[in-house]
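User:
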Amino acid sequence: MTATDLEHPDLDDLRRDAAACTRCELYEPATQTVFGAGPSSAWLVLVGEQPGDREDQAGEPFVGPAGRVLDQALERAGIDRDGVYVTNAVKHFRFEREGKRRIHKTPGVTHIRACRPWLDGELAAVHPAVLGTLGAVAGKALLGNAFKITEQRGQVLEWEGYQLVPTVHPSSILRGPPEAREESLAALAADLKVAAGLRPRA
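Assistant: Predicted structure:
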């Protein structure tokens, strides 16, 4: 049974099935599938691009340097990460070798399409009140190629019945100039606050 066969998918079933995924060639050099993490009752799902080197080794999303930046931004936005489901549009690490290092390589359209059933399954299982996309790749994966992160970040968009707030990927803050990191982190937190404002009241 696959993600697309399940009318009411279970995250544990999806995670087990995704662990054996061979829908594209990325599974071969990667250490493992990196599935989403968080409670099935999460009100917010954050979708990133793909796992990085640290995530590929650990088998968990957003546990490396970008994950620490995300944690800081969530805290500033007043969002408890324990109540958030975090995942990626692509579940295997795409990289190229540079000596002993593995350097991130942006996933292609074919990789995003191959992984789409897993993401659709996660959204169906969690059915969050709010979605957030982190970075241009994740934004385009859901909203299409017309999506422009510089123009649409922090806005509340409608997507397939969800309220969706796009923002930058935390790794972009790490790649930017050190003197701009505080300002960039504050901007990321501000976008996440927009998402926080959409949380249904208990």
